[in-house]
Design a protein that fits this description.
177 residues
């Protein structure tokens, strides 16, 4: 899922569907990518960033590292009661992106990448009134943490049925009920 969101009060939020936006800023001194109940608070690298290009990815296992080689990267652990997640600016009343369905509720790891803050600084220093191009990039890669919680991210049973046998397979399945 890809989308854009605002950045206000120096942050954006990734959260589960239905979470009430918190009016409180995270505690001072928290990391640029910090997990809180049902949310992840992200801080851009540049203080002049006003928008974020966000990509959320759901994986069945730990993916290869994404993002450019020079991106800031952080891996965090968190739990979700609802597996639908979206992104919003800190003050936005609801998600500003579509929701990504992770699979099952439970414990996840997420690798967060951010890049583009240096370009935002360059744009701001050249023209402080240029607000169109002051966007940083964030890539979040989610995967279940089955080591800690084996019930999370369990595989769905699938069967491969040759095209000609699909009706026979359905009949056999129905007769077995």
């Amino acid at each position: 899922m890809e989308g854009h969101t605002g950045v206000d009060h120096g942050q954006l939020v990734i959260e589960v569907r239905g979470t009430e936006p918190s009016p409180h800023l995270p505690p001072a001194g928290t990391s640029w990518a910090a997990a809180h109940p049902g949310t992840i608070h992200l801080h851009p690298a540049s203080e002049w960033t006003i928008a974020a290009a966000v990509r959320l990815e759901a994986w069945l296992a730990e993916p290869a590292r994404g993002g450019p080689p020079d991106a800031d990267t952080s891996t965090i652990d968190l739990s979700f009661d609802n597996p639908d997640i979206g992104a919003r600016g800190f003050s936005a009343p609801a998600s500003e992106t579509d929701f990504l369905h992770l699979g099952n509720p439970g414990h996840y790891k997420v690798r967060v990448h951010r890049w583009g803050g240096d370009q935002v600084d360059t744009i701001f220093n050249a023209n402080p009134h240029d607000t169109i191009h002051r966007t940083e990039n964030f890539l979040l890669q989610f995967w279940p943490s089955p080591t800690d919680h084996p019930d999370v991210g369990s595989a769905v049973e699938t069967a491969t049925i040759p095209g000609d046998d699909v009706h026979a397979a359905i009949r056999d399945w129905a007769q077995g009920l």
